[in-house]
Amino acid sequence: MTPHRIVALPGDGIGPEVTAAALEVLDRVGEFDVEERTIGGASIDAHGTPLTDETLEACRAADAVLLGAVGGPRWESTDPHAPRPEQGLLGLRKGLGLFANLRPVRPSPALLDASPLRRERIEGTDLLVVRELTGGIYFGDRGRDAGGGAYDTCVYSVLEVERIAEVAFRLARRRVTSVDKANVLETSRLWRETVERYAGDRRRGARGEDADPREDPIALEHMLVDNAAMQLVARPRDFDVILTENMFGDILSDEAAMLTGSIGMLPSASLGAPAAHGVFEPVHGSAPDIAGTGAANPLAAIGSVAMMLRHGLGRPEEAGAVERAVDAALVDGLRTRDLGGEATTREATEAVLARL
Q1: Single pTM value for the model
Q2: Which of these is catalytic: 94, 216, 254, 327?
Q3: 151 noted as active-site residue
Q4: What is the domain count for the chain?
Q5: pLDDT at 212
Q6: Residue segments in the chain with a per-residue pLDDT below the cut of 50
Q7: Out of 152, 226, 238, 332, which one is annotated catalytic?
Q8: Both 234 and 306 in a single domain?
């Protein structure tokens, strides 16, 4: 069998360190053809642009993409024409047609006391944030006007909302919580109407025109984003799948990350059409303040390898083996500095490898 082709994009800050750890784990579970390329600030330094056409084409030709992190203060600028590392990530998602971001939040039993919330509040939490990736304010028209003002335009189409709703309902076990700001924003009113219509069409398609909505195994509820932010910390275990637009999903998934004890624990997958190749990356940023110190937590990057194996390469057995190895290492006492311990990146990687 020809090995799967993987493009690794280590990026900036701690990105290369956690990506190297993840690739060690990937190498332990099978044979893969890995090609490394630059993105973000590293690509700006080398090529003057955060994402080259050659890198994008390599990603299109691969079976999956493993990404570290992008960004850092050395590339920050108020010049709207200056290249920014984050443009590389947005361009990659757009260029690969990746419209669905999956961020699972399942606190490890061994880390229940590492969360800033009480154990009894987060125990049993197992939720998934499904975030729309290629629409909304991040991709709308933006600029400055002659009067010194600035604007960012949020735009969504029915098609964009329908296709992300389909992903959320497909992955839900009992309920989809659709998050919006329909009491203020017109795009949110379109979002709510479209999700409601999709759920109704799905029910009728599966059960017939006279189906009772109370009999649908997947329930739908709508929640305003400010209330969702509150409920995430008040009753996180009540959520199943949270469906939301781009910016709201960006914010809520980072909030949800703290339920696990550290944002360094959260992996993610960015997916598109069934034939598209996904991008798998930790949720955390480039953390330039600890880059090169050996203190970075590699577990989110290793978890992203598990998501790549499951959602990108169709290898659920190996994905489960990786996840069990991470859980076993934590049960046996592994704690990196962000989790209140002293384990280095190297020690955390070796602890996972020893349990595979």
Answers
A1: 0.86
A2: 254
A3: no
A4: 2
A5: 55
A6: none
A7: 226
A8: no
